[in-house]
Design goal:
By secondary structure, the protein is mainly beta. It has one domain: Distorted Sandwich (Beta-galactosidase, Chain A, domain 5), CATH 2.70.98. About 10% of the residues lie in helices and about 50% in strands. The protein is built from three helices and 18 strands. A nine-stranded antiparallel beta sheet has the order 7-8-9-10-18-14-13-12-16, covered by helices on one side. It has a five-stranded antiparallel beta sheet with strand order 6-5-11-17-15. It has a four-stranded antiparallel beta sheet with strand order 1-2-3-4, with helices on one face. The chain is globular. The chain starts with 5 loop residues before the first helix and ends with a helix. Residues about 1-20 and about 260-265 have low confidence and may be disordered.
Length: about 270
Protein backbone atom coordinates (compact mmCIF):
# COMPACT_ATOMS: atom_id res chain seq x y z
CA UNK A 1 0.00 0.00 0.00
CA UNK A 2 1.27 3.43 -0.87
CA UNK A 3 1.09 6.12 1.80
CA UNK A 4 0.93 9.19 -0.47
CA UNK A 5 -2.02 11.56 -0.12
CA UNK A 6 -3.86 13.88 -2.43
CA UNK A 7 -2.45 16.84 -0.47
CA UNK A 8 1.07 15.56 -1.03
CA UNK A 9 0.50 15.24 -4.76
CA UNK A 10 -0.77 18.82 -5.03
CA UNK A 11 2.19 20.09 -3.00
CA UNK A 12 4.64 18.23 -5.25
CA UNK A 13 3.04 19.67 -8.36
CA UNK A 14 3.21 23.17 -6.91
CA UNK A 15 6.90 22.80 -6.07
CA UNK A 16 7.69 21.54 -9.57
CA UNK A 17 5.63 24.19 -11.36
CA UNK A 18 8.47 25.62 -13.44
CA UNK A 19 9.36 25.48 -17.13
CA UNK A 20 11.26 22.25 -16.51
CA UNK A 21 8.38 20.52 -14.70
CA UNK A 22 7.53 17.03 -15.91
CA UNK A 23 4.71 16.15 -13.46
CA UNK A 24 1.34 17.48 -14.62
CA UNK A 25 -1.69 17.63 -12.32
CA UNK A 26 -5.27 17.43 -13.58
CA UNK A 27 -8.18 18.17 -11.24
CA UNK A 28 -11.94 17.99 -11.67
CA UNK A 29 -14.51 17.94 -8.86
CA UNK A 30 -13.72 14.89 -6.66
CA UNK A 31 -10.73 13.71 -8.73
CA UNK A 32 -7.00 14.42 -9.11
CA UNK A 33 -4.64 12.80 -11.63
CA UNK A 34 -0.86 13.18 -11.99
CA UNK A 35 1.09 12.37 -15.16
CA UNK A 36 4.90 12.27 -15.40
CA UNK A 37 5.82 13.01 -19.01
CA UNK A 38 9.51 12.07 -18.68
CA UNK A 39 9.51 8.54 -17.23
CA UNK A 40 7.68 5.23 -17.31
CA UNK A 41 5.83 6.30 -14.15
CA UNK A 42 3.41 7.97 -16.56
CA UNK A 43 -0.01 8.35 -14.97
CA UNK A 44 0.84 7.26 -11.44
CA UNK A 45 -1.99 8.71 -9.34
CA UNK A 46 -5.76 8.83 -9.75
CA UNK A 47 -7.29 10.14 -6.54
CA UNK A 48 -11.06 9.89 -6.18
CA UNK A 49 -12.49 11.34 -2.97
CA UNK A 50 -8.99 11.14 -1.47
CA UNK A 51 -8.28 7.47 -2.34
CA UNK A 52 -5.57 6.71 -4.91
CA UNK A 53 -6.52 3.86 -7.28
CA UNK A 54 -3.62 4.09 -9.77
CA UNK A 55 -0.04 2.83 -9.65
CA UNK A 56 1.07 3.06 -13.29
CA UNK A 57 -0.38 3.58 -16.74
CA UNK A 58 1.94 4.27 -19.65
CA UNK A 59 2.58 3.64 -23.31
CA UNK A 60 5.16 1.72 -25.35
CA UNK A 61 5.77 1.53 -29.11
CA UNK A 62 7.70 -0.68 -31.51
CA UNK A 63 8.74 0.15 -35.07
CA UNK A 64 9.05 -2.88 -37.32
CA UNK A 65 10.89 -5.72 -35.57
CA UNK A 66 12.72 -3.46 -33.11
CA UNK A 67 12.24 -3.92 -29.34
CA UNK A 68 9.53 -1.97 -27.56
CA UNK A 69 10.43 1.36 -25.97
CA UNK A 70 8.35 3.62 -23.74
CA UNK A 71 7.22 6.85 -25.37
CA UNK A 72 9.22 8.94 -22.87
CA UNK A 73 12.37 7.77 -24.71
CA UNK A 74 11.26 10.00 -27.60
CA UNK A 75 11.75 13.76 -27.65
CA UNK A 76 8.96 15.62 -25.88
CA UNK A 77 8.20 18.39 -28.38
CA UNK A 78 4.86 19.68 -27.11
CA UNK A 79 2.82 20.00 -23.93
CA UNK A 80 -0.55 21.69 -23.45
CA UNK A 81 -2.76 21.71 -20.36
CA UNK A 82 -6.16 23.38 -20.20
CA UNK A 83 -9.48 23.62 -18.38
CA UNK A 84 -12.48 22.61 -20.47
CA UNK A 85 -15.14 23.55 -17.89
CA UNK A 86 -13.80 26.75 -16.24
CA UNK A 87 -17.18 27.97 -15.01
CA UNK A 88 -18.14 24.71 -13.31
CA UNK A 89 -14.74 23.66 -11.97
CA UNK A 90 -11.89 26.17 -12.48
CA UNK A 91 -8.89 23.80 -12.61
CA UNK A 92 -6.89 22.16 -15.44
CA UNK A 93 -8.58 18.91 -16.49
CA UNK A 94 -7.05 18.13 -19.91
CA UNK A 95 -3.44 17.34 -20.92
CA UNK A 96 -2.00 16.78 -24.40
CA UNK A 97 1.61 15.73 -25.01
CA UNK A 98 3.58 15.32 -28.23
CA UNK A 99 6.51 12.90 -28.56
CA UNK A 100 8.50 13.04 -31.79
CA UNK A 101 10.85 10.72 -33.67
CA UNK A 102 12.31 10.99 -37.17
CA UNK A 103 9.32 10.41 -39.43
CA UNK A 104 6.48 10.16 -36.91
CA UNK A 105 5.02 11.51 -33.71
CA UNK A 106 2.74 10.21 -30.94
CA UNK A 107 0.28 12.51 -29.19
CA UNK A 108 -1.62 11.23 -26.13
CA UNK A 109 -4.43 13.29 -24.59
CA UNK A 110 -6.18 12.77 -21.24
CA UNK A 111 -9.49 14.41 -20.23
CA UNK A 112 -10.45 14.01 -16.56
CA UNK A 113 -14.09 14.16 -15.52
CA UNK A 114 -14.73 13.92 -11.81
CA UNK A 115 -18.09 13.52 -10.14
CA UNK A 116 -20.03 14.58 -7.05
CA UNK A 117 -17.83 14.56 -3.93
CA UNK A 118 -18.40 11.33 -2.02
CA UNK A 119 -19.71 9.44 -5.06
CA UNK A 120 -16.48 7.41 -5.58
CA UNK A 121 -16.98 7.93 -9.34
CA UNK A 122 -14.62 9.33 -11.96
CA UNK A 123 -13.86 9.10 -15.68
CA UNK A 124 -10.84 9.63 -17.93
CA UNK A 125 -11.24 9.84 -21.70
CA UNK A 126 -8.03 9.16 -23.63
CA UNK A 127 -7.01 9.49 -27.25
CA UNK A 128 -3.67 8.74 -28.88
CA UNK A 129 -2.82 10.06 -32.33
CA UNK A 130 0.07 8.54 -34.31
CA UNK A 131 1.10 10.46 -37.44
CA UNK A 132 3.47 9.27 -40.17
CA UNK A 133 5.48 12.17 -41.59
CA UNK A 134 7.76 9.90 -43.59
CA UNK A 135 7.83 9.15 -47.30
CA UNK A 136 6.74 5.52 -46.97
CA UNK A 137 4.43 3.34 -44.87
CA UNK A 138 5.14 3.14 -41.13
CA UNK A 139 4.87 -0.29 -39.47
CA UNK A 140 4.34 0.46 -35.80
CA UNK A 141 2.90 -1.30 -32.76
CA UNK A 142 1.47 0.72 -29.87
CA UNK A 143 0.94 -0.76 -26.41
CA UNK A 144 -0.84 0.50 -23.32
CA UNK A 145 0.13 -0.99 -19.94
CA UNK A 146 -2.02 -0.56 -16.81
CA UNK A 147 -1.39 -1.36 -13.14
CA UNK A 148 -4.28 -0.19 -10.96
CA UNK A 149 -4.10 -0.47 -7.17
CA UNK A 150 -7.80 -0.16 -6.42
CA UNK A 151 -8.56 1.19 -2.95
CA UNK A 152 -4.88 2.11 -2.61
CA UNK A 153 -3.66 -1.49 -2.20
CA UNK A 154 -1.61 -3.64 -4.58
CA UNK A 155 -3.29 -6.98 -3.85
CA UNK A 156 -6.73 -8.49 -3.55
CA UNK A 157 -7.88 -7.48 -7.05
CA UNK A 158 -9.48 -9.43 -9.87
CA UNK A 159 -9.01 -8.51 -13.55
CA UNK A 160 -10.23 -9.87 -16.87
CA UNK A 161 -10.71 -8.87 -20.52
CA UNK A 162 -14.00 -10.48 -21.59
CA UNK A 163 -14.85 -11.58 -25.13
CA UNK A 164 -15.98 -11.74 -27.76
CA UNK A 165 -14.46 -8.35 -28.70
CA UNK A 166 -11.71 -8.29 -26.03
CA UNK A 167 -11.76 -4.50 -26.10
CA UNK A 168 -12.74 -3.90 -22.46
CA UNK A 169 -10.65 -4.49 -19.35
CA UNK A 170 -12.45 -4.93 -16.01
CA UNK A 171 -10.91 -4.94 -12.55
CA UNK A 172 -12.51 -4.95 -9.09
CA UNK A 173 -11.64 -4.95 -5.42
CA UNK A 174 -13.78 -4.47 -2.31
CA UNK A 175 -16.71 -2.76 -3.98
CA UNK A 176 -14.77 -0.59 -6.44
CA UNK A 177 -14.75 -1.45 -10.15
CA UNK A 178 -12.56 -0.13 -12.95
CA UNK A 179 -13.62 -0.44 -16.58
CA UNK A 180 -11.63 0.59 -19.63
CA UNK A 181 -13.33 0.32 -23.02
CA UNK A 182 -11.53 0.79 -26.32
CA UNK A 183 -13.89 2.74 -28.57
CA UNK A 184 -11.79 2.34 -31.74
CA UNK A 185 -9.91 0.70 -33.26
CA UNK A 186 -10.18 -2.76 -31.73
CA UNK A 187 -6.93 -4.02 -30.15
CA UNK A 188 -4.79 -6.43 -32.14
CA UNK A 189 -3.73 -8.22 -28.94
CA UNK A 190 -4.47 -8.10 -25.21
CA UNK A 191 -3.30 -9.69 -21.97
CA UNK A 192 -4.18 -9.85 -18.28
CA UNK A 193 -1.39 -10.99 -15.93
CA UNK A 194 0.03 -10.58 -12.46
CA UNK A 195 2.78 -8.05 -11.84
CA UNK A 196 5.52 -7.94 -13.12
CA UNK A 197 5.01 -10.27 -16.09
CA UNK A 198 3.89 -7.78 -18.74
CA UNK A 199 6.07 -4.89 -17.59
CA UNK A 200 9.14 -7.13 -17.55
CA UNK A 201 8.60 -8.15 -21.16
CA UNK A 202 7.98 -4.58 -22.29
CA UNK A 203 11.42 -3.69 -20.93
CA UNK A 204 13.38 -6.85 -21.81
CA UNK A 205 15.10 -5.45 -24.91
CA UNK A 206 13.36 -7.89 -27.27
CA UNK A 207 10.25 -7.49 -29.44
CA UNK A 208 7.21 -9.02 -27.75
CA UNK A 209 3.56 -9.67 -28.56
CA UNK A 210 0.86 -9.76 -25.90
CA UNK A 211 -0.34 -13.29 -25.13
CA UNK A 212 -4.10 -12.83 -25.81
CA UNK A 213 -4.86 -14.20 -22.33
CA UNK A 214 -8.16 -12.78 -21.07
CA UNK A 215 -7.91 -13.93 -17.45
CA UNK A 216 -9.31 -13.73 -14.89
CA UNK A 217 -6.22 -13.10 -12.78
CA UNK A 218 -6.20 -12.45 -9.05
CA UNK A 219 -3.97 -10.53 -6.65
CA UNK A 220 -1.67 -7.79 -7.95
CA UNK A 221 -3.31 -7.49 -11.37
CA UNK A 222 -2.04 -5.79 -14.51
CA UNK A 223 -3.26 -5.76 -18.10
CA UNK A 224 -2.38 -4.35 -21.51
CA UNK A 225 -3.69 -3.72 -25.01
CA UNK A 226 -1.68 -3.75 -28.26
CA UNK A 227 -2.47 -2.20 -31.64
CA UNK A 228 -0.52 -3.08 -34.81
CA UNK A 229 -0.65 -0.53 -37.61
CA UNK A 230 0.77 0.09 -41.06
CA UNK A 231 0.24 3.84 -41.50
CA UNK A 232 0.56 5.25 -45.03
CA UNK A 233 2.83 8.24 -45.59
CA UNK A 234 1.22 11.49 -44.52
CA UNK A 235 -1.63 9.83 -42.62
CA UNK A 236 -2.62 9.30 -38.97
CA UNK A 237 -4.42 6.79 -36.79
CA UNK A 238 -6.30 7.68 -33.60
CA UNK A 239 -6.94 5.32 -30.68
CA UNK A 240 -9.91 6.29 -28.49
CA UNK A 241 -10.50 4.82 -25.01
CA UNK A 242 -12.46 5.59 -21.87
CA UNK A 243 -11.73 4.63 -18.24
CA UNK A 244 -14.30 4.75 -15.45
CA UNK A 245 -14.11 3.92 -11.76
CA UNK A 246 -17.43 3.28 -10.03
CA UNK A 247 -18.65 1.75 -6.76
CA UNK A 248 -20.53 -1.55 -6.47
CA UNK A 249 -23.09 -3.06 -6.58
CA UNK A 250 -24.05 -2.25 -10.17
CA UNK A 251 -20.58 -2.34 -11.67
CA UNK A 252 -19.63 -5.36 -9.57
CA UNK A 253 -22.54 -7.31 -11.02
CA UNK A 254 -21.27 -6.39 -14.48
CA UNK A 255 -17.83 -7.75 -13.63
CA UNK A 256 -19.34 -10.99 -12.34
CA UNK A 257 -21.26 -11.51 -15.56
CA UNK A 258 -18.14 -10.81 -17.59
CA UNK A 259 -16.33 -13.47 -15.58
CA UNK A 260 -18.95 -16.01 -16.59
CA UNK A 261 -18.44 -15.18 -20.27
CA UNK A 262 -14.69 -15.74 -19.97
CA UNK A 263 -15.23 -19.10 -18.29
CA UNK A 264 -17.53 -20.72 -21.27
CA UNK A 265 2.96 -9.34 -5.02
CA UNK A 266 5.12 -7.11 -5.93
CA UNK A 267 4.70 -4.73 -2.99
Amino acid sequence: MRLSTAFGVIALAALSGSASAVVHTLSDRNSIVTIDDASQAGMSNWFIDGTDHMFQQWFWFRVGAAPEASIDTLALTGSFITDTNPFDDPAPDTLSLRYSAPGFDIQPTWVLRGSTPGSARSDIAESISITNFGNGPLSISFLQYCDFDLNGTSGGDRALIPGPLFNTALQDEAGIVLSESVVAPMPSHYEAANFPSILGRLNDGAPDVLADFAGPVFGDCTWAFQWDFVIPAGQSVVISKDKTITPAPGALVLLGLAGLSVARRRR
